[in-house]
Predict the 3D structure of the following.
Amino acid sequence: MKLRSASTVVATLVGVLVIAGISVQAASWDSTTLKMNPVKGEAVAYDGSGCTAPGAQGYFVFIDKPGVTYTSVGWFNDKASCITIAPRTRVRIYQHTNFKGSTLNYENSDYDAIMQKELTGWWNDTLSSIKVWTMP
């Protein structure tokens, strides 16, 4: 049995999805701004203020996807200082894991612009779980 490289398998899968008419989108890295650019249904949390990730490290992408939950953000627990929210996307940040404790809600109803929010006061370095929804 001949094994294919991971890149060949991914390229084939993307090609099949495009032919089937299924849109394949995901946050993309911008090396000029040092930020991830989330697409509809995504949010990106950063461990530094200004929502930047020097060295392309210190961020976590959250996606609204069936079957995916963020009851715990794992290694990113209590590290977020800033969050960007894609157009037509809503998020609820939780103070504790398993969607417990205080909450903070953001809704980006814009059709084009990415929303950026600094997590200030005691919310800085407090995010432990999060929910992300795509808006119609």
In short: Residues 6-19 form the longest helix (14 residues). The chain has one domain: 26-134. Strands lie at 28-30, 35-37, 42-46, 59-63, 82-85, 89-96, 100-108, 115-118, 129-134. The helical segments are 6-19.
